[in-house]
Predict the 3D structure of the following.
Amino acid sequence: MHIKQMLGEVAFSNVIGKKKFKKKIKNYRGILFVSCLYKLRSNQTHLLSGLSVLAPAIFSMSVQGATQTTQKMVQFDIQAQRADKALIEFAKQTEQTVVFSYELAKKYQANSVYGFYTQLDALQALLVGTELDAVVDQNGLLSIKLKQINRKDNNMMKLSGVSAAVLPALLAANSHGVNAAEDVAQENIEKIAIVGSRVAGRSVEDLPVPVDILSAEALENTGQTEVGRMLQSIAPSFNFSSSSISDGTDALRPATLRGLGPDQTLVLINGKRRHQASIIHINTSVGRGTAGTDMNAIPASAIKRIEVLRDGAAAQYGSDAIAGVINIVLKDGSEGGKAAVNYGEYSEGDGETVNVDFNKGFALGDSGYLNATLNYRDRAPTNRAGLHGSCQFYGCTELSDGTLLAGDPRELTADRDTFRIGDADSQQFGLTVNTGYELGDGELYGFITYSTRDNESAAFFRHNANAGGNPVLQDNDATIPLGFLPKINTTIDDISYNFGYKTDFDNDASLDVSYTYGENSIDYTTSDTVNASYANFLRYEQGLSAADIRNTIPREAYAYGMELSLQTINIDFTQNFDDYSLAMGAEIRTDEYRILEGSEYAYRDYDTLDGVSIYSGLSGGVGSEDASGGTQGFGGSSPASSVDESRDVISFYLDAETYLIEDVILSGALRYDNYKGFGDTVNFKLAGNWAITDDVSLRGALSSGFRAPSMQQLYFNNISTQFVVAEDGSLVAEEVGTFRNDSTLAQSLGIPKLKEEKSQNRSLGIVYNVTDNINVTVDYYSIDIDDRIVISNRLGKGLSSSLDAALISSGAGAGQFFLNGADTETSGIDFVATWNTEGLGGTLDFTLAANFTETEVVSLFTPSGSGLETVPVEDVFSDQEISIIEEWQPEDRINLSALYQRGDWTVNLSLNRFGEYTVEDGGRQTYGAEILTDVKVNYFVTEDLSVNIGANNLFDVYPDKNTIGNSRSGTIVDANGNTIVSSDGVFEYSRRSAPFGFNGAYYYVGAEYRF
């Protein structure tokens, strides 16, 4: 049997709680796995905020091809008995899935059914005289509908339209079935929770804040191969912006919620805190100065569902949960699996991608499971660079009309496709194992995730006429005569493992103890490069000829590495009483961060000592005397920049929930965190839900939150080459030092240690079940963040004498620092509407989801009493830094999707609107809104084998052409006035921010075999 994940939008208030009643598994006609969800599962040990949760008790018996079999005549022999037992017997005799509430069904007496019936007729006959109805949802899934339900006496989920009123699909892919359960038939019973509460399941109308439950089928239907792109395609509040020539950011893109920073969203795996990526986004891109989580480290084929909490939750989960929480739940099936292969490429003929998945579940005797996933993805690079329009060789002359007359004859035949601007070349292997085993009176559980990814992206092309990066030798020609394109090679390794034990007590209490370890590392190697200063060293120090220098100069070097690890111990206790629920727990964490030095060749300046040129006056007027140090494109890190730091954190939480009156639920949470470094913080959350009618509910929450400075913000330091826009609009290279706050330079300026960001979150929403098949939710949110940690502008010489002296001694032309320097206000609206119906001979599911958000920097300030206090704040924080926070992400995202199913055919159509965004980069440009069309068609050739074909961005939509911050533009003519090249620059599209990229249409085909 295949157990499929229910998809929809869920609201919740706090953390999680998972319990299992031990029952033996019974085999029937092969394997019949029956489980019951009537309580929410808690995988995370954090604050108890109370306001209930989702996931009512729902029974699911596995089925194949429900749409084709509901009208089939079947011979039945079912005795009159309790309704839950009768429904289980029905599922056995039909080998069909039935979704129902076990807690409700067991209250009714079913009738006997004997003879030939269709499945629907049999169910209706079985339930005559009860308050239960049999219905078929849009997927052909049989479910039991309650005619009447009392909100307080029975807080299970209403099943009148499982995918509509109860779990409205945020995505257009409602293939949902749930784990289901049985007590009498001695099947396995499992209580499952959605991230956000440790309390037993309420109906969706009772929940105070919104959560999107995104199933594996929904993710798969996007046609994307990366988890980050999948989430972006179906969750409008989630952004996954692209940039190019931005060093490590090319390999690990920033992921954000509600337009905030990547580090203001907490990511969990099976409810356990996920470690961040070791990289920090230093270059000018979305998320500059922040460190997020690698969303692509977990293969999509290993994911059972993703839960996206769209509300502040720091009072429940601790640091980082300002914008919300993303919980990735791994597959836990004990049987079945799939093998899948997918191939696609862009309409330009590049970006060829091969994705191979294998997933298999294994039973560990009668008491456990082990689910394993293997993934391999190979993605070729894309290139949307414009032509190199500036002169590559010396000797060009500017004419009166601004065109350039070629001087060097090599200019006439020089390659003009010198840049590579687009997605990086990438190969990734991933392994995920998720397991659980009943031991004693509880369950021993754990998971392992591992991935390794090799990426290659390109830096700026170094042409012949570049004395600093491609020095002229004694033969009066450049070290690399035709120029070179440095490559940044990154290897990203990510591993995590978790093990724990949880047990239930007879008094409706539970205890969960767990340990989680995670580590992310990135190693940089620069290839196709040179250390320009080393060419001078070889010439003047070792006396090599120009030819010998070209033959012997190294072209590759290890730049440096970074490692970040997280260890977490969690202890959680929950207790349910008659009138309220209570939870409490503790968390102990250790953060570790390391920067590993690179090879000497990668960082050393061989022709300069203490800022003085060593070989000055030795060239005889021919060639270079002082060139740039370090490997061109991506320089190395010296031993002086090495880091090995750690931080301890201890936290305690308390969470409670109760009915204030019959139709009003109130929950509260309180959390204390103590950080080695900035000290302690206490945060709270209050949330409530008022059921005005059976179909209309108001929900709201008020909370405080915080985000501790990341280890990278505290300790990252480096000197890198950054290309910035000069006053004339051209891009120029600048050596920029990033200095940690406890560095000698920062201390000499009086820059204080970083402290935590503080937030206030407010939300108010309405849930309206228009009909059994139409559901609408609208949520308003407001997030105020004080003391936001931002990275300063590149502060050069001339601003203060102390800064000048410090920069000279460091060897950097400019310095940047992490500061608590901004207060921001964010507000917006989330909207979700779903409609499930029948038509065109099949089922149709429509989803309209939207997010509208706006962030404003309301205050900027420099540290009081520091050397920066006398520097104008507009110099410390440039207009570009403000623009990145306020404008570089779309102001709105709208998704309209439709899922059509008929027989063996499934068609998924999605329209994604990316709203306007503005980029400041030497000028200001607003990029217009665009609508992308995605389509996927799937056909089951046999019961187990399916093939699919599809397109993402079907109509080849690109963002607006770039008009600012360009490079290498110009027109070159020969002596006869013939145009050699004319180009507006190599950046045809903004390299700084591209919400949906700039690769164009992507077409793919695939096949999948389920077993």
